[in-house]
Amino acid sequence: MKQAFRQAGFPRLYAGLTASMFGDSVMLLVLSMWVKTITGSNAQAGLTFFFMVIPALFAPLMGVGIDRARRKPLLVWGHVLSGLMVLPLVFVRGAGQVWVIWVVAALYGVSFIVLPAALNGLLKELMPEEMLVDANASLQTTKESFRLFGPLVGALLFTWLGGWAVAVLDAASFFVAATVIAALAVHEDPPAVEESHFWAQMTSGMRHLAHEHVLRHVLIGFAMCILVLGFTESAVYALLDAFDRPATFVSVIVSVQGVGAVAGGLSSSWVVKRIGEVAACVVGLVLLAIGILVIAGTHSFVVVCLSAGVFGASLPLIMVAFMTLIQRRTPQAIMGRVSTAVEVVMATPQAISLALGSLLVVLLSYRQIFTVMALVTAAAAAYLVVTLRRQIADDVRRSSPAVLVPAEAATTDAPAVLPTPPLEP
C-alpha cells in the first residue's frame, strides 16, 4: 500500500478523506442508536438504515450529472453539502422528531452515492492502473480502522452530551475534508459533451454492467448476499436483548469488528494481487459466512465479539477487490454512471433486506435470522466460483510468480475497456 503514497496528490486526497471517514464512523451507528433510545423500538432502529438506502434507487439520475462534472470540485462541494445536511440533527429532542433523523439518513444516502462515484473517477484520473488496488486498500483500511474507536467515541458523546454533539462533530469533519481536498493539485479535462438521448446516457452505466461478463456475475453474487445481510441492522439489537446488554453496547461489537477489519484491510492488497479480484471476493464471502454462522450458534457473548472480528475481516477484502474491479473494467467517461448503477443493483436487495429484517426480528429469533444469513452468503460465494471459474483460474495463473504475464494482459473474460488516462501534472 505504500506505493500509493508515492503518487503525487494521493497523500493530500487521503488526508481529506480520512477526516470525513472519521466523522462517518462516529455518526452512522448513532443514528440507529438514537432512534432505538427515543422510541424503544428495534424495528424503527432498523428502518433508519432503510431510509439511508432509498436514494440509491434514483442513483442513475445522479450518475449523468456526476459524469458531466469534474471530479475534484464535485468531491469538494459534495463534502460541504454533506456537512450542512447533518446539522438539523441538533434540533432532535424526542420521539416527535424521529422523522428528522430519518430525513438526515436519507440525505446521507445521497452523499454515499455522489461522493464514492466522484472518488472513483478522481482515483482513476490520479493513479496508474497498477496502483489502484493499493489506493483502495489504503482508504478501506483506514475507514475500517476507525471502527476501533469511532463508534465508541460516538456512543460516549451521545451518552454524555447528546446526539447534537455527534452531529456537530460529523459536520466539522466534512468541512475539514472539503478544505483539504480543495488544495489538491490535479488537472482534469472538461467532460466530453454527449450527443445521445438522455435516456441512453442515463442507462449507459446499467448497460455496461449488463454486458460486462465479470461485473455482471459478481454483482449477482453480491445481490444474493446483500438480500440477507441487512437483517443484521435489526437482529443485532435482538441479540443484545438476548444477552441482556443495552443498545449502546452495539458500539463494542462494532469496535471488535474493526480489529478484524484492520487485519483484512492490511492484507487485502496482497490477497487481490496474489489471486485476483474475483477470487478475493469469494474468500471474503466465505469468511463472512463463517463469522455469521458462529454468531448464530454460540451462547457466549465473548465468542459473538470474536466472530464479529472475522465478520469485519471479510468486509475490506470484499470492498477493495470489488472497487478495483469496477475501476479497472469501466471507461472513465461513464465511471459516475457505472458507480451509481452499482448503487441501484446493491440498494434494491438492501432496501428489501432492511425492511424484511425489521419484520423478521418480530417473528424469528436472532439465531434463526443469522443462520439464514450465513447459508445465503455461502450460496453467493458458490455462485461466483461456478460462474466465474475460468476468470478465477486465469487470475491465479497470471498472478503466479512462475508465469511471466503482464498484470494488465487481457483474459478470455475481460472485454476491451478504455485505457487509464495518463497522470496529469
Description:
This protein starts with 9 loop residues before the first helix and ends in a 26-residue tail after the last helix. The chain has 17 helices and no strands. The chain is mainly alpha-helical. The protein has one domain (2-184, 200-399): Up-down Bundle (Growth Hormone, Chain: A). It has helices spanning 10-39, 42-53, 59-67, 71-85, 98-126, 132-145, 150-160, 163-182, 198-211, 213-229, 232-242, 250-275, 277-297, 301-328, 335-363, 366-387, 389-399. The longest helix has 30 residues, at 10-39. Helices cover 75% and strands 0% of the residues. It is globular and about 55 Å long.
List descriptors.
mainly alpha; disordered C terminus; Growth Hormone, Chain: A; 17 helices; 425 residues
Topology:
Layout: H1 10-39, H2 42-53, H3 59-67, H4 71-85, H5 98-126, H6 132-145, H7 150-160, H8 163-182, H9 198-211, H10 213-229, H11 232-242, H12 250-275, H13 277-297, H14 301-328, H15 335-363, H16 366-387, H17 389-399
Helix pairs in contact: 1-2, 1-5, 1-6, 1-7, 1-8, 2-5, 2-11, 2-15, 3-5, 3-9, 3-15, 4-5, 4-8, 5-15, 6-12, 6-14, 7-8, 7-12, 9-15, 10-15, 10-16, 11-15, 11-16, 12-13, 12-14, 13-14, 13-16
Q: Strand-residue fraction?
A: under 5%
User: pLDDT below 50 for ≥5 consecutive residues: which ranges?
Assistant: 402-425
The tally of domains stands at 1
- Supply the number of helical segments: 17
Helix/strand class: mainly alpha
- Euclidean distance between termini CA atoms: 22 Å
Instruction: Tell me the overall shape.
Output: globular
Q: How are helices and strands ordered from N to C?
A: HHHHHHHHHHHHHHHHH
CATH-defined fold name: Growth Hormone, Chain: A
**CATH H level, superfamily name:** MFS general substrate transporter like domains
Q: Helix coverage percent of residues?
A: over 70%
What is the number of E strands?
0
Largest sheet: none
CATH architecture: Up-down Bundle
Which CATH class?
Mainly Alpha
Q: Radius of gyration from the CA trace?
A: 21 Å
- Provide the residue-averaged pLDDT: 83
